[in-house]
Amino acid sequence: MKKIVLLLAVLLFGAGSMMAQQDKSAEKAAKQAEKEAKKAEKAAKKAAEEAEANALFEQAVQALKNKDFVLEADRIEFKRGSFVYVTPNTNFVSVKGEKATIQLAFNTPAAGPNGIGGITVDGTTSGVQMKTDKKGNVMYEMNVQGVAVSARVTFRMAKGTNKCTATVSPNFNSNRISFTGNLYPSSESNVFKGRSILKELKRVSGETSEIYSYQSAKIKNSSLNNGIRFYEIAINKFLGNSIIKRLEGINFQSNDEIRQRLKPDTEIGTGEWVDMSGLIAPKSEIDRLLDGIENGSVNRLKSINASFAEMHENYYTYEWTWAYNKIQEFYGLNPDEITAQDIICIVKTWKEAVVGLDKMVYDDARKEFSLSSMTGFGADGSHDEMKQDFEQVRGDFESNTFVTAVLKHIEDKTALGNELIKRIESIQD
To answer: Of 35, 40, 145, 348, most Cβ neighbours within 10 A?
Structure first.
């Protein structure tokens, strides 16, 4: 009997030990599974971030190849290593075809030469070189020559990111400056928001107010009106560009044919647009992608990347849908009643905007060749000797490469507008 009891005790102890061991094993397995799940989640998140960063990188590379990009800087560094953090909207380097703009505006309430607390210089690009090293890093170099700028600009962007640094090295001094931020394809849509803010500010505060307050800024009446005027010039330019592009190369026979051509190819593009880390897209398409992820119909990174690629490829199609609605809103036109004469009026306004902006640049350039700008040249001689000395260094105004480029742009844009007007001016029905 004692042996039986002892045997049972041994068996029970062994069973208890085994159960305890099994519990520990199960707990260990559960912890391991949890650890593996967290590791997988972390890896998936990292992969998604890398995929998004790579998509932005590829988009930025294409923008560089297209000569159609903006580097929005949040950090400015000077030659001796000192730096400041700045606002990207007013600190940037942009390129559009052969035109470049370098904009610098520190976060200060005081207005600068450009009216926003800094300086703005425009120029023409040349000597563009784009290289990719063995690691995939991109270097993009160009010369920028204008009335107020002569510099070599070097962009450096590491593979897998659109984070970029542009170093501006003046040709006649060592005061280099570096812009660090994100590089995106160019976009002009924000001008509408700026105009609406200023108009609403004027409405609320009254037409005759001498000073308007917006956030921490004080704006003079004349400055506010000038701001509205310049925003409207930009809007006329943008919408005119869109219309001319939409109607190019077609010989229309009636107003109905024009109306049919103006109709958007898709409903996508109306309403709000968002900036997805540099991918400018309709909010409706971003929401559609998010819904697909939530309901499981989009469940692979490959599918997400494909959605982003589709948005990028259809940008201009979506943009026209947006522009079409803005044309109705801005010009007060009924889409079912738009005529050739309405289009001609818009194109004429577009010409005034484009040519007007170029003439401002032209007049500003002429100031750089005035007698007052010649101070220091031929200081010991007559006015003629001063002028001769100045021209030997700076050249004469009419043959200046930047000036001739401005005049050529005026000529080309005038011809573009006139071509569309001539093509549709006979339509009367």
So the answer is: 145
**Which single residue is written with the structure tokens 């409903």?**
267
Query: Are 345 and 242 found together in one domain?
Result: no
Residues 281 and 386 in one domain: yes
pLDDT of residue 129: 93
Structure tokens at 182: 């994100």
Token pair in block for residue 273: 């647009």
Structure tokens at 217: 């800024």
Residues 40-53: what's their mean pLDDT? Answer: 73
Q: Which two tokens stand for residue 385?
A: 């000797």
Residue span of the structural domain in which 390 resides: 255-424
pLDDT in tens, 321-349: 888 888 877 777 777 788 889 888 888 98
State residue 315 phi and psi, 5-degree precision: -55, -50
415 pLDDT above the threshold of 80: yes
* Rounded CA separation 429/407 (Å): 37
DSSP-derived secondary structure letter, 21: H
Burial call 147-167: b when 16+ CB within 10 Å, e when fewer: bebebebbbbbeebbbbbbbb
**Model confidence, pTM:** 0.45
CA of residue 171 relative to chain centroid, distance: 27
By C-alpha distance, which of 339, 328, 333, 334 is closest to 257? 339
Residue 108 forms part of a structural domain: yes
104: domain CATH number? 2.40.128.410
Residue 33 lies in a domain: no
SS3 240: helix
DSSP state of 90: G
